[in-house]
Amino acid sequence: MLSPLRTKDGPTPVLNCRCEVEALYRQRRVTSSLKRCTIPPVEVRIAVAKVNKYASSESGDTLEAVERPNGGVSVVLADGQTSGRGAKAVSMMVVRKVIGLLAEGVRDGAAARAASDALFTEKKGQVISTLNICSVDLHSGTIVLTRNNPAPMFVCRGDKADCLAAESTPLGTSRDVRPVITEMEIEPGLIIVVYTDGLVHAGRRRGQPMDACEVIGSLLEEQDPSPQEMADSLLSHAMKLDDNRPADDISVVVLKVVHHAGDDVRRMSIRLPIGS
Amino acid sequence: MLSPLRTKDGPTPVLNCRCEVEALYRQRRVTSSLKRCTIPPVEVRIAVAKVNKYASSESGDTLEAVERPNGGVSVVLADGQTSGRGAKAVSMMVVRKVIGLLAEGVRDGAAARAASDALFTEKKGQVISTLNICSVDLHSGTIVLTRNNPAPMFVCRGDKADCLAAESTPLGTSRDVRPVITEMEIEPGLIIVVYTDGLVHAGRRRGQPMDACEVIGSLLEEQDPSPQEMADSLLSHAMKLDDNRPADDISVVVLKVVHHAGDDVRRMSIRLPIGS
Fold it and tell me: Distance (Å, rounded) from C-alpha A102 to C-alpha B87?
C-alpha cells in the first residue's frame, strides 16, 4: 500500500528506510517478579492528532489511552472497515476489548489476538479492523509496538527513520491472525510514529499520494520537534493533499522519549473541538 | 473537610463561594433520537496534573479518559482508600467499571451507582473509593459532573467561582450510595475544577492547609489561564505546602470551554515521567 523507499527528488541521505525491517527484538529484561526494571530517568511524551473524514460526524478511528496495571501506559488505535457509524462501532468494540484485557494485565499480543477472534466470531470475517498498540511497559522497561495494520510504523533515532512495514493483516480476517510485535528499550531520543490508513490514502484522489517517510524525514531535520508538532505536521500535510477535505478518517500518534528534566508530575491534555 | 468560605486575608470580592450550592440543573435538551443537539462552535480543553505521594511508586488515584459512544468524552477519576498498591487496585477497579459502562452508553449516575454496588459487594463496606466523572456529552449538549467525593468541585465563569460542596459520600460505603450530579450547558468561558483529597490535605502536616478556593480565585484573575496552567498551579501550590513531598496522591482536572477558533483536529497529549 505504501512504498517508503520511493522518494520524489532522489535519495534523502538522512533517511534510512528499510521496507522489511525484522522485529527489532532486544534481549528482554522481564523478570518473573513484579519488581520493576531499572529505567534511566526519562519522560515519555505521547501526542495524538485525529480528524474525521470530510463531512462525516463520526470517525471510524477510535483511540484510547489506558494505564497499565504493572506500570506505564498503552495507546490503542483501531480503524474499522469503511467509515461512519458502522466503522465506529467496530473500532470501538476492538479498542474496548483490547484496553479491557490490557487493564487486567494481559500482554499486548494476546490482547490483539483476543480482539481479532472476538471480531471474527461476531462478524464471521465480513468486517475487519486495523489495530495498533503502543505501550510503555514499566514492568519490562521497554516500548512494545503491536501492529495489525498494513500501514507501516516508523521508529526514529536522531535523524534516522526506520520504516517498519513487515506484512501485517488486520483483525477479523481469519481465525489465526497474528500481530507483528516490535519491542525496544526506553531510551532518550527514540521517536515512534503510528498512523491509520487515512494518512496513507491522502492525496490519492488528486494523484499526489502522501509520502509519510519523506515528511517524517523532513520533520526530523528540524530542531528537536515536539511529538505534538510532529503529529500536527503529518496530519496537516495529509489534509492539504486532500484540499482540507480528508477522504478518510486520519489519526496520527507520535511517541517521543526525552531526558527527564522537569518534575515528577504526570500530565494529560485533551482538546475536543465541537459544533461548527 | 474543607471550608471554602474561609479566606486568610479577609473576603476576596471576585469570588462567590457557596458552600451548599444545589445541583445546578438546567432544562435538559436530551432528545429521544440519536440526533445531536445544536452546540455553539466551541472547543473543550481538559488538562490533568497528577503526582504520587512522596516516596510511593504507586498512586492510589486512577484517572482515565474515555470517548462516549454517542459523542463526547468523559474523564473518570477515583481515589482508593489509603495509598499504595491496595488503593491503586481499588481505584483501578472502580475506574475500569465506570468507563466500561460509559462506553456501553450507560448514563454517568447509573455507572457510579453500579461501581459503588460492585465495590460494596466485593469489599463488604470495608474499602471505599471516591469518584468524580466529568463528561462532555454531545448527545445532550451538556457537561455532566458526577461526584461521590467529600472534596468539593468548582464551577467558574469569568472571575466568579462557585464551590459545589453539597454532602457527598464515597463509593462502597453502603448499599444505596447516590452521586451528586450537576449538569450545565456547554458554553464558552466555563471552567470546571475537580481534584482528589490529596489537594485538600496538602499542608495539614505543617498546619497551613491548602485553600483551593483562594488559589482558584487568584488563578481566575490572571489573563485567560489555560487549563494546564491552572492544573499545574494548583498542584504546585499544594506540593509547596508539603515541602515538595506530597503527603498523599494528588490529582487535579481542569476543564475549560473556549470559543472554537482553530481547526477540527482532536488532540491529546500525555507526559509520563519515569525512572528517577
Answer: 19
